[in-house]
Design a protein that fits this description.
Blueprint lengths: L2 E4 H6 L4 E4 L4 E2 L6 E4 L2 E12 L3 E2 L5 E13 L2 E12 L14 E15 L2 E15 L30
Antiparallel strand pairs: 1-4, 2-5, 3-4, 5-7, 5-9, 6-7, 7-8, 9-10
Amino acid sequence: MNIICAFRKVQYLSIQKEVFTKKAVINPTFANHIIYDKMSYEITGKLIAKFDIVQRTETFKTREFVIEKTEDINGRSITNYAKFQCVQDKTAMPDRFNLGDEVKVMFNIKGTKWMKDGRENYITNLDAWRMETLKLQGDADMPASSNYNDIPPAADVVDDLPF
């Protein structure tokens, strides 16, 4: 199945980096579109909500969480909220994080078409498959503080070294 991804839309949605697992095929008729066979995305933001695990069927469970992403666009601060879902063994993933933590979420976009009352409906899910805590910029690459003068020299020690 091919998915069309418009670059302008992707940038507006604050998706920072696309990771493609298969070769991209450029569609020559649409200069601003690229067709991909499989995609995975990353987004960073603040974890603001975690919901309970929902057992959908005997063998299928889901859990949702929400990320807040604030950006400066043309001098205005714009806040967006994205709800992600975890499925099966990934439902415990949000437990490692506290509300308010800055996190990076890796996810896939999945869509479903279904019929209800004779009308076609479409659902889009953001399926999270990995979460990481972001390092604070002040903490990155900071060596542990070592003070080699912690113990002052004893006052009654005689130094008889010749140099």
